[in-house]
Design brief:
Helix content: over 70%
Strand content: under 5%
GO molecular function: kinase activity
Radius of gyration: 19 Å
Organism: Algoriphagus pacificus
Shape: globular
Number of strands: 0
Distance between the termini: 52 Å
Number of helices: 12
Protein name: Histidine kinase
Transmembrane segments: 12-32, 44-66, 118-135, 147-170, 182-208, 220-242
Structural class: mainly alpha
Keywords: Kinase, Membrane, Transferase, Transmembrane, Transmembrane helix
Order of helices and strands: HHHHHHHHHHHH
Length: 255
């Protein structure tokens, strides 16, 4: 494949930074307005952390495309001299690894104690697999990492499935209206985002070789779904100010 096409494709991630930046400003404003006890609660603190972290690495990705020398030096440090325009090292670590762990922790916060232990082991296993695959050179940090991402995406989907089984079986959830729970919308957004990202990421190079228009379109849709997920997280932070739209989460006693 033409190297210019590859580099154009793999530096396309941070093209849509304005909507996330606006969502971050809204999120910061709303979070500051929350009562102190809610600011410390995981169901408001963690969405805020994910929002801030996601916008941060998105803007850093844009900066790396602006500052080529910085990007080239980081690639050279990791041993990538063939594709100095890649900034995948940033998105592999921030989005596909740290981001996956943060979303697993968010899912865990809505589960019963037994299922939380399952998520804990999933997180430990994911960290171990990611480290082994990277340091062994099987999936270098500066190239596309379909195995690591596929494992992380499947764990997110499994975690979301654990949530939805609680939603239809546990009395606390059965007594509530799912459409009025921010957790329902969070899990739904994660399923759509990671399902599409899973398909496009695993077959990323193949798609771009066979049908670059389709590959680029799937990537763009994935970005839009990511923005939608950030919007839902922002709404989650603001949910205490929207009592006519959202109900309180049916917390377990151990929360």
């Amino acid at each position: 494949m033409d190297q210019r096409l590859i580099e154009a494709f793999f530096t396309a991630y941070p093209q849509y930074t304005i909507p996330p930046d606006l969502l971050l400003l809204i999120g910061i404003f709303v979070y500051i307005k929350l009562p102190k006890e809610k600011q410390r609660h995981i169901h408001f603190l963690l969405p805020f952390v994910i929002l801030c972290f996601t916008v941060f690495y998105g803007n850093l990705g844009s900066y790396t495309n602006y500052n080529f020398e910085f990007k080239r030096s980081v690639n050279a440090y990791f041993g990538n001299t063939e594709y100095p325009n890649f900034n995948l090292w940033l998105f592999n670590v921030a989005e596909r690894q740290i981001g996956t762990i943060l979303y697993l922790i968010l899912i865990k916060s809505y589960l019963r104690p037994f299922k939380r232990k399952i998520i804990n082991w999933m997180i430990y296993l994911f960290i171990l697999i990611a480290l082994v695959l990277q340091f062994s050179g099987i999936e270098p940090i500066y190239l596309n990492q379909p195995i690591i991402f596929a494992i992380g995406a499947n764990m997110i989907l499994i975690g979301s499935a654990l949530y939805f089984t609680d939603l239809i079986t546990f009395p606390s959830y059965l007594a509530s209206n799912p459409l009025r729970l921010v957790s329902f919308w969070q899990m739904t957004a994660l399923i759509f985002m990671f399902t599409l990202s899973y398909i496009s990421s695993v077959a990323l190079i193949y798609l771009y070789e066979v049908n670059p228009v389709l590959g680029t379109a799937l990537q763009a849709v994935g970005i839009y779904l990511g923005i939608l997920t950030l919007a839902i997280l922002t709404i989650s932070i603001a949910s205490p100010f929207l009592p006519n739209i959202f109900d309180k989460e049916p917390f377990y006693e151990s929360n």
